[in-house]
Amino acid sequence: MRGAYGGPRVLLRRLREVMAEPVTAQERLDRIVVLIANNMVAEVCSVYVLRGGGDLELFATEGLNRTAVHATMMRKGEGLVGLVADEAEPVNLSDAQSHPSFAYKPETGEEIYHSFLGVPILRSGNTLGVLVVQNKSHRTYSDEEIEALQTTAMVIAEMIASGELGGPEDPSLAGRRPSHAEGQPLSEGLGLGHVVLHEPRVVIKKLIAEDSAAELKRLEDALASLRTSLDKLIDQSEVARAGEHRDVLEAFRMFANDRGWGRRMQEAVLTGLTAEAAVERVQSDTRARMQRQTDPYLRERLHDLDDLANRLLRELVSPGKGMTAELTQLPENAIVVARSMGPAALLDYDRTRLRGLVLEEGSASSHVVIVARALGIAAVGQIANATGLVEGGDAIIVDGVSGDVHIRPTADVERSYIDKVRFRARKQEQYRALRDKPSKTKDGAEVALMLNAGLLVDLPHIVETGAAGIGLFRTELQFMVASSMPRTAAQQQLYRAVLDAADGKPVTFRTLDVGGDKILPYMRNEPEENPALGWRAIRLGLDRPALLRTQIRALLNAAGGRDLRIMFPMVASVSEFDEARALVRREHARLVRHGHPLPSSLQLGVMIEVPSLLFQLDEILARADFVSVGSNDLMQFLFAVDRGNARVSTRFDPLSPGFLRALQRIAQKAGETGTPVTLCGEIGSRPLEAMALIGVGYRSLSMSPASIGPVKAALLDVDAAELAAFVEPLLARSDGAHSIRAELKAFAAKRGLQVEP
Ligand code: PEP
Ligand code: MG
Fold first, then answer.
1. Atom in ligand 1 nearest the alpha carbon of residue 452
2. Locate the GAF domain: which residues (predicted)?
3. pTM higher than 0.85
């Protein structure tokens, strides 16, 4: 059924006129509701705006009692208006009063209206309010009318989001109010700053079209150009350059050719919107659907469609730019907010301005998170609809310790975080002051504090922390952040840069530790039932010697004229080490034959991280030049707890007598044979655990850069002999206690040791 004044196109034309009138926002809204009521021949048209706390406030009405404006409040979920807000979907009823959600508000005088059409006022998938029309007669509103009302709701959404309705200072309007979300802490640190959307949203300035035919043509052209560039990307396999997965691009192509999507946008243009507004109008529906979708596969596809809509918007605003990400100038203290992103993309940002990362997805082992940790920026993941909750430039706080994200924080929250940041900075200052102090306990035991590293961005930490060297260089990180297999030359270049940065300090390179949770996107990998116990690390290296050989060659070449230390991960049997060592020797001999420069010394070591090696210690220590304990994996395999499964990973305490006895045995045996031993798992990064390790005999620990200061501060104040004497009887205990943590804490507290980082 058509409205009396010519339907949606006329409505939009009138809207444009009203928007141009020099009146206040409230007056404009009052005129808009009259306009809609007239256009749709409805007795009532009302606008409800979502306030902080979830109330829906009547902001304007034609037909209802005007004294109810700014007085009537509906809870989100209350009444039909609340239902629309909750479901973010239109509700169209010819007999509203018989609907179970109908709630009567006497002050409005709405008891006489039977039909009801309510549409959500949406922006980026967030509900900002509800727009309603009502009639006395039993009437079913047509699809065209629903469409027209949704389009008008878009215009009102812009008025709400711009702050003009409540005044820019009114923080309680839903879209702009402070909000808080709790996610998963992924990289430690605190980041205070302003939002930079990784996929910036295009700000649409003009919603209503002047010439619909021209807008249709713009839409068609933009779609066609998007399709062409997608085809090109896929055909030329430029996938790597774009940093995207082929299957995502394939999904894009499928949607770009989807008739339904194209048609919905065309229909929106035909109601009188500009091409951009039409894309956003349809995108808003997609986003609302996305938030309700629980099936992970379908959600993912809706995300793809949303991404594609963003690109189409970019294409409309800057033709030819749809598929190329734009790199904007970062503000000071940038907090990047993204649905998900690749590691290389994060490295593209100016790291001097980058303070934090917020992801809708992301887990501790995702590659972008590994990079965030290496860059030392706070990161939080699993924040649902993060990109929809913020606008570029919004103030935001990321707490990578607790997982909290504060969007547009209140002054109180901001102040408390500024204090926290100051406190951390003071601590850092204290740690920096320790940098050049010899790393010795009170009774003179030297404890070498080394770095765990893996990327170029880690290298400045050697100088910054005053570390004794790199105890673990995880070579797989270069492979994980790349979009294709790094060639020998690239590997060699990185290893050389590492040795240059170490400037004579020892560096221990670990050969590729891939497989398990470290998946290379470009390498075919067969799904395994238990990847942690599967075909990974040295197993893969020995079965595919070409890969290992290439890496060994790159290492030997990079270390010409310098000392080289290489160790092998996940060795479970002495014979594996023998085999790996033979491979290195063959490569070394080859260099000799060809007269290439040789490393001045070559030491080969083994990671002790598979429990079977605990029973081959004599044999392994007789062969290896050094050993390094991988306590992360050793703990995982000794206790049979998946280190990546949050449900069980903290179930057992590494400070348990059983685990510490195993570590003590390794240190003792290594000491007896004069084999240097380091521990390079995460436990060395925590001051209390580090004290226990010193107590059971370790004199070399390798850890994350941020831990060097706290661990050093603690060990400078401790007496190693006293620690050993304290720990020994606790390990000999037979009372079945599962941990000695409490005793160690009491020991530290009594001596005033700083063991909380
Ligand atoms: C370990 O297992 O303790 C270790 C240092 O190696 P990764 O964490 O890389 O497996
Ligand atoms: Mg390991």
1. 5
2. 24-170
3. no
